[in-house]
Amino acid sequence: MSSFAAYLRLDATEGPGLPQNVAGQLETAVAVGLLSHGDRLPPESELAAELGVSTGTLRQALETLRQRGVIETRRGRGGGSFVRSASKPPPEAVMNRLRERSADSLRDLGDACAAVVGGAAYLAARRAAGDDVTHLRSLAGHFRGAETADERRRADSRFHIEIGVIAHSARLTQAIVHLHDELASLFWMVGGEVDHHPVTESAHAGLIAAIEGADADTARAVVMRHVEDRVQHLLDLHLDLVVRGESSMTATHRREGEGT
After folding, report:
1. Through-space distance between the first and last CA atoms of the chain, rounded to whole angstroms
2. Which residues of the chain are in CATH 1.10.10.10 domains?
3. What is the DSSP string of 28-48?
4. Where in the chain does DSSP place strands (E)?
């Protein structure tokens, strides 16, 4: 089963809000790199079956994605729905988002990510078979070859999502997509790769070795330690942003007081 197919396995119940849920799910698939710029979506009937929804619901979801600029539809021979380049928020917006989050919410995100991805790594080490490790090694190679922070973010997410696939758990795969994307989108977009790029490569290598050696405890420990390092980096940066913001406000108030 591919990462994309595992992620699409939903327990969906038709209803008024379902098209928006489907649209959000597909948009997340683009954001984490399960779908890349230029990729052609599967035929509507096939994609609807993967999602467990009607073709009518899927068409509403695709129309929403067209309006958001996530996909474009081409007519005629060789046509279909194709993924467009994902727009990236400006660095200032990402920094503001990190500053406005509480330290407790960052720790909570890290705890959830460590528990879910760590549990998937434990199961992956026990269940890996065939060419699973070879594929994981290939994804680690994509990360090493990435040239931009956004490419590294996508490659890193693909690597971790694949752990859920190797664990043979659709629910864990879906959870990894959402949790890891939330953590990785903050980490990589605030410059986390500057100091942690080699650390991430080392963590990938350690996890691959643990899964290949069927060492479930080590696989889980590698993931949890790596997530903890990332969360600590975000916490340190969050504190720095908060302090700088308070200092700036104090200086502004002082100047205003001197001017009166």
Report:
1. 69
2. 4-83
3. HHHHTTSS-TTPBPPPHHHHH
4. 71-74, 80-83
Q: Are 189 and 233 in contact (CB under 8 A)?
A: no
Contacts of 112 (CB under 8 A, 6+ apart): 179
Spell out the CATH class of 4-83: mainly alpha
Paired strand residues for 34: none
- DSSP for 188-235, please give it: HHTTTHHHHHHHHHHHHHHHHHHHHTT-HHHHHHHHHHHHHHHHHHHH
Instruction: Outline which parts of the chain fall under CATH 1.20.120.530.
Output: 91-258
Q: Is the pLDDT of residue 256 over 80?
A: no
The CATH code of the domain at 91-258 is 1.20.120.530
Report how far residue 37's alpha carbon sits from residue 30's, in angstroms, rounded to the nearest whole number.
Answer: 8
Predicted TM-score of the model (pTM): 0.78
- Could you read off the pLDDT of 176-220 as tens digits, one per residue? 988 877 887 788 777 655 566 788 999 999 999 999 999 999 999
Distance, CA of 53 to chain centre: 24
Residue 241 in tokens: 């942003």
* CA angle (148, 154, 156) in 5-degree steps: 100
Query: Computed over its alpha carbons, how large is the radius of gyration of the chain?
Result: 21
Give φ, ψ of 82 to 5 degrees.
-120, 145
**One-letter identity of residue 111:** D
In whole angstroms, give the CA distance from residue 208 to residue 179.
21
pLDDT tens-digit series, residues 126-168 = 999 999 999 999 999 999 998 887 788 888 888 999 999 999 9
